[in-house]
Amino acid sequence: MKGLSKDRLWSIAVLTPSIILIAVFVYGFIARSVYVSMTDWGNDPAQALAEHPIIRWVGLANYGELFTGFLQGRFRQELVSTIFFTVLFIAGCLILGLGLALILDRNPRGEGVWRTIFLFPMSLSFIVTGTIWRWMLQPQGGVNMAPTLVGGAPSTFPWLSSTDSVLKFDWNKLPLLTASVVAVVLIVVAVRAMQAGDRRRTVVAAVCAGVLLLWALFVGPNLKMLPAPEYHGFNLALIGIIIAAVWQMSGYTMALYLAGLRGIPEELREAAKVDGANDYGMYRHVIFPLLSPITLSAMIILGHISLKIFDLVYAMAGPDNLQTSVPALNMYLTSFRQNQFSLGAAIGTVLLILVAFIIVPYLASQFRTEEGHA
Amino acid sequence: MKKALLIATALAVTSSALAAGKLEIFSWWSGDEAPALNALVKLYQSKYPSVNVDNATVSGGAGTNAKAVLKTRMLGGTPPDSFQAHAGQELIGTWVVANRMQDLTPLFKSEGWNKVFPADLIKLISSQGKIWSVPVNVHRSNVMWYNPAKLKEWGVSVPKTWPEFLTTCATLKSKGVAAPLVVGENWTEQHLWESVMIGTLGAQGWENLFSGKLKFTDPRVVGAFTTYGKVLDCANKDASGLSWQQASDRIIDGTSAFNIMGDWAAGYFTTTKKLAPGTGFGWAASPGTTKVFVMLADSFGLPKGIKDPTETTNWLKVLGSKEGQDTFNPLKGSIAARTDSDLSKYSVYSKSAATDWKSSKIVGSMVHGAVAPESFTSAFGAVIDQFVASKNSAAAAAAAQQLAVRSGFSK
C-alpha cells in the first residue's frame, strides 16, 4: 500500500519536525565544523574573536599541520594514546564483564545485591569516577599503600605522573607500518579465500597485498613526514586512567552478557550435555558463539565512548598532562583556550572520522540484517 | 486576559526598576577569594546605594571555566559590564586585538592613576599607546620558599644564582635529600621555567623575548633551557600528580628544601598551615632575580557595547582607588598595585613584597598571562611537557619560537 493514506500523512507530519531539527543541529553543524576546519579562523589571534572576522579558505592545511606540523606532536601522541586506550579499555571491560556475568550466571547467593554492586559504578559520571580514582592513585596514598595492609612496603608506581612509555615507534615510519599491517591482513584474507575456493577474491587480495608490500619496501622508507624522528608509544601514565574507565564500564558489559546468558534456552545446554559436552566444551562451542552479537554491540558502544573520552581524563590528570592527553581534550583546549577554532574543528573532524570507522560498518550490518528479516 | 496584562505590567515595572541602576561583575573569585570581592562590592554599594550589583562568579581555578563562559557571552553579543582578566597580554592578545574593549586612558588621566601605578606596570597593560584595564591587585611570581629550620639543619644557605642553586642541590643530594626542589603539575613547572629564564637572561632579556627582539632559538635562550633541565634534575619525579599546595607541603615537612611559587603560597602557609612568617617558612627572590619583581595582576576592563557604562566606570574608579585596593588586598593576600597603599593593613610577607614592588624592576609573568597572549601560554604547556620528557633544549627552543611566530609577537 503506497498511496498517501491518512496513517502515512500522520507519520510524515509527526516525523518532519525531528527530521528538520536533526538535519540542522546534527548534520548541518557537522558540515559547518568540517567547513571551519578548512579555513584559517583563529590562526591569526586578532581575527579569532573579532566581530566580523576575516576568514580565508585554506583547504587541508590544518590537517597537514596536525599530522606533520612541528608543533603538533602532542596531537600525534594523543592519536597513538587513543588507540592503545581503546584497545585496552575494550579488552578490559569485555574480559571483566564476561567473567562477572559467568559467575553471576551460576546463581550465587545474593545475586541481586552483587548485580547492583557491579552495575553501580555506571550510574556515576566520569567526573566523579575520575575524582575518586585520582585520590586513590596518588603517589603516596590509596592503591600505592595497599601492600602495607599485608605488611609489605608501599608501592612507588607513579600512576598518573609516569613519563615512561613502551612500544615506541617513529612517527615517520607510520605509512610504512600501516602499509605492512594492511598487507599482512590482505595476505591472510587471500589465504582464507584460497582455502574456501573463491578464486576472484584470492587474486584481488593477493594483488593488493603485493602492491602495498612493494610500496612499503621501495617508496615508504624514503617518505619523510617530519624533519626529525619523533617517537610515540604507550605512556604508562595511561594505565591508571584505563583502570578507572574499566571500573566504570565493566558493570555495563556484565549486564549485557548476563542478559545474553539468560537468553540462551535451557534446551540447548541440555542437548549439549546429552551429547557429552563437558563444561569447557559447552562454553567453547555453544555459549560463546551465541554471545558473539553481544560482544559486537559492547565493542561498538565502548569503542565510541573511549574515542570521545574527555571528562575522565580531565578530572584525573588535568588538561595539561601530555602523557595522558586525548584528542577530545586537545580539541577543547585548542578551540576554547587558544582560540584556534579552525585547528580545533580539524581535530574534531578527525575524531568524527575515527568514530565513523567504528559506527558505520555496524550500522551497515544492522540495516542489512533488518532488510533480511523484512 | 486581565491576569496576563497584570503580569506584563508587573514585569515591565520590575525590569525598569532594575535598569535604574545595575552592574554585573563577572569574575572567578569564589571560595577563599570571595570575601575579598564581597568587601569590594560592599564598598561600592556604600558609595552608590541605588545600584543593584549582580555578582556573576564562575568558579574554577585561574578562571578556566569563567573564560569559556566569557567567550560565549562576548561572541553572543551580551558582554558582562565588567569582567576579570589577568592584566596584560591575556586581555590584550584576546579581546583588545579583537577590538572589543574600550580605551581607559582618559579614566587613568582623570583619576591621576598614571602617577600612583608604577610605569613598568602601565607599560604591561597598554598596547597601541592606550591603557586597557584597571589592575586591582599584584602578585609576585618569582619567590623561592623554604623551611628555615631545615636549611640550618642541612647547613646550606639560600642560593643567589642558578649555578649556585645547582651546587646547593648537589650538596643536599649528598646529604640524602632525594629531591632538593619540589615542583607540581604542569603549570607550576612553567612557573619554574619562567623564574629560571628571568634569572638567567635578566629582566631585559625576558622583555626582549616577548617583544620579539630576542628569539627563543638564540644560543643564550637555548642555554637557559639547558639550565632549566639541570634544575629539573634536582626536582621530584612525581611532579604531575601534585597540586601546588601538595608541593608546598613538602617544604613544611622537610622532604624538599626549595619551592618556587607565587606569593599566594604565603597565604597558604600562614592561614591554612598556621605557620609564622620568617620562622615557620622563609622566602627569597628566586635565584638571579633579586632586584626583579615578576608580577601578575587581576584586572577589570570595560567591554564595548555594555548596557550600564556609568555604573561600570564608577566600579572601575572604586577598583583603582586607594581605599578600594586597601580593602581588597589584605583579604585576598596580595598587595596593592598602587604604590601609596597603607602598609599597616598588610601581613608581614605582604609588607616585604610591597617594599620590593616600589624599588624593583617590574616585568610580567608569562604563565599567568601578563606578557604573552593565550594562544602562546596555553600551547606552551605541551612544549614544557615534551622538554621534561626529552630534555632536548634545542627542540624545545625551536618549538617555542614557532609558537611565538604563530602568536604574532615574534618573526
UniProtKB/TrEMBL annotation, chain A:
<feature type="transmembrane region" description="Helical">
    <location>
        <begin position="233"/>
        <end position="259"/>
    </location>
</feature>
<keyword id="KW-1003">Cell membrane</keyword>
<dbReference type="InterPro" id="IPR035906">
    <property type="entry name" value="MetI-like_sf"/>
</dbReference>
<feature type="transmembrane region" description="Helical">
    <location>
        <begin position="116"/>
        <end position="136"/>
    </location>
</feature>
<protein>
    <submittedName>
        <fullName>Glucose/mannose transport system permease protein</fullName>
    </submittedName>
</protein>
<keyword id="KW-0472">Membrane</keyword>
<feature type="transmembrane region" description="Helical">
    <location>
        <begin position="286"/>
        <end position="307"/>
    </location>
</feature>
<dbReference type="GO" id="GO:0005886">
    <property type="term" value="C:plasma membrane"/>
</dbReference>
<comment type="similarity">
    <text>Belongs to the binding-protein-dependent transport system permease family.</text>
</comment>
<feature type="transmembrane region" description="Helical">
    <location>
        <begin position="203"/>
        <end position="221"/>
    </location>
</feature>
<keyword id="KW-0812">Transmembrane</keyword>
<feature type="transmembrane region" description="Helical">
    <location>
        <begin position="12"/>
        <end position="30"/>
    </location>
</feature>
<dbReference type="Pfam" id="PF00528">
    <property type="entry name" value="BPD_transp_1"/>
</dbReference>
<keyword id="KW-1133">Transmembrane helix</keyword>
<feature type="transmembrane region" description="Helical">
    <location>
        <begin position="174"/>
        <end position="191"/>
    </location>
</feature>
<feature type="transmembrane region" description="Helical">
    <location>
        <begin position="341"/>
        <end position="364"/>
    </location>
</feature>
<dbReference type="InterPro" id="IPR000515">
    <property type="entry name" value="MetI-like"/>
</dbReference>
<dbReference type="InterPro" id="IPR051393">
    <property type="entry name" value="ABC_transporter_permease"/>
</dbReference>
<dbReference type="GO" id="GO:0055085">
    <property type="term" value="P:transmembrane transport"/>
</dbReference>
<feature type="transmembrane region" description="Helical">
    <location>
        <begin position="83"/>
        <end position="104"/>
    </location>
</feature>
<keyword id="KW-0813">Transport</keyword>
<feature type="domain" description="ABC transmembrane type-1">
    <location>
        <begin position="79"/>
        <end position="364"/>
    </location>
</feature>
Automatic annotation (TrEMBL), chain B:
<keyword id="KW-0732">Signal</keyword>
<dbReference type="GO" id="GO:0030313">
    <property type="term" value="C:cell envelope"/>
</dbReference>
<dbReference type="InterPro" id="IPR050490">
    <property type="entry name" value="Bact_solute-bd_prot1"/>
</dbReference>
<protein>
    <recommendedName>
        <fullName>Probable sugar-binding periplasmic protein</fullName>
    </recommendedName>
</protein>
<dbReference type="InterPro" id="IPR006059">
    <property type="entry name" value="SBP"/>
</dbReference>
<keyword id="KW-0813">Transport</keyword>
<comment type="similarity">
    <text>Belongs to the bacterial solute-binding protein 1 family.</text>
</comment>
<dbReference type="Pfam" id="PF01547">
    <property type="entry name" value="SBP_bac_1"/>
</dbReference>
<comment type="function">
    <text>Part of a binding-protein-dependent transport system for a sugar.</text>
</comment>
<feature type="signal peptide">
    <location>
        <begin position="1"/>
        <end position="19"/>
    </location>
</feature>
